[in-house]
Amino acid sequence: MRLPPRVPLGTFPTPLEPLPRLSRELGIEVLVKRDDLTGLALGGNKVRKLEMLLADAVAGGADAVVTCGSVQSNHCRCTAAAARKLGLECGLVLFDGRHNEENGNLLLDHLFGATVERHPAAAKPRAEALMTELGRRYRRPYRIPFGGSNALGAAAYAWGYQELLEQLGGRRGTVFCVTSSGATHAGLVAGQAILGGPQVVGVSIADRVVDARPRVARLVVETLRLLGEERPYRVTVLGGQQGGGYGIPSKAGLAAIRLLARTEGILLDPVYTAKAMAALIERARGGQVAEPAIFLHSGGVPALFSYAAELL
Questions:
Q1: Any idea what the Cα angle at residue 278 is, between residues 276 and 281, rounded to 5°?
Q2: Is residue 259, in this structure, part of any structural domain at all?
Q3: Would you tell me how many other CB atoms lie within 10 Å of the CB of residue 38?
Q4: Whole-angstrom Cα distance, residue 96 to residue 215?
Q5: Could you tell me which residues are beta bridge partners of residue 143?
Q6: What sign has the CA pseudo-torsion 199, 205, 210, 213?
């Protein structure tokens, strides 16, 4: 597999750890791939993507990066930190959501010195135009799409899948991941298509499955093309965990946060990973998982602090 260049930002490989107490609780073997421990700016899956995205930015002579997301965006927090690590400026277009307080990821954006522009949620359809306008502040801005979700960002998770295979040492099983903007899921599927190995199951945390699946499939095709591969692939997206939608915790997700915290001392976030873990728990208890169940922990922990009322 021909991977794109990377610039060092995080700590890799991330650990693959057993979860013995959760495994006993669910009656199946559960492992966790700790991409919450990627190191930069409290970690998360975006650091892996940014190693490839910002390698492209640096190679093109960029003096700044511009991206967008929600007020509590993990992607924006990691982008702001990565830009500073590389001596670049950072502009963020942020859209108001459920929690708009100056804490969690938004606090960290300010600490990293990002230029932050706040907009109402209704302005999301204008994200590209708003990023273009913000980019005019800089000489050579490099624009990153929402969530780092393009073929280059997804290719980072073909690399992540390769890393996971090496750690599994020939074992198979089922990989569970979050499906939102789609690049993490698509990259894992591309990796599985090229290398073989465990099935990949994405859990939609907001969108309908009928909308999420084709988005991921398009990214898989683009990622395989970028990697110089043409392989058959399968995109599996689970529904039933979206709750009230993006940024709105679900009852099952909040239960998953408490279960992981109290059995394994591991923190999930209410927006993304809690909903994906809720799907793993539900399917494990229903006998619907090929063992071991492998949970890709994609981070997001800073958002916990904005959801204290719901959690307590």
A1: 115
A2: yes
A3: 26
A4: 24
A5: 66
A6: negative
Does the annotation count 23 as an active-site position? no
Stated pTM of the model? 0.97
Confidence of residue 306 (pLDDT cuts 50, 70, 90): confident
Decide if 46 contacts 83 (C-beta within 8 A).
no
Two tokens, residue 121: 């949620």
Residue with tokens 């997206």: 237
Domain boundary among 100, 129, 148: 148
Residue with tokens 């190679």: 59
Would you say residue 299 lies in a domain? yes
Residue 12: pLDDT over 90 = yes
Instruction: Compute the distance between CA of residue 124 and CA of residue 178 in angstroms, rounded to an integer.
Output: 21
Same domain, 110 and 214: no
Cα(141)–Cα(135) distance, integer angstroms: 6
> 236-255, pLDDT tens digit by residue?
999 999 999 999 999 999 99
Do residues 165 and 298 share a domain? yes
Longest dimension (CA), the chain: 57
CA dist., res. 179 & res. 201, Å (int): 9
User: Where among 111, 127, 148 does a domain terminate?
Assistant: 148
| β 141-143/237-238 pair status | unpaired
Q: Considering the candidates 23, 70, 73, 250, report the single residue annotated as catalytic.
A: 73
Q: Can you give the pLDDT at residue 102?
A: 86
Give, as one character, the DSSP assignment of residue 93. Answer: E
My answer on whether 117 and 167 are in the same domain is: no
3-state secondary structure 162-222: HHHHHHHCCCCCEEEEEECCCHHHHHHHHHHHHHCCCEEEEEECCCCHHHHHHHHHHHHHH
Query: In Å, what is the CA distance from 243 to each residue of 57, 246, 272, 275, 283?
Result: 37, 8, 12, 9, 17
- Under DSSP, is residue 245 helix (H, G, I), strand (E, B) or coil? coil
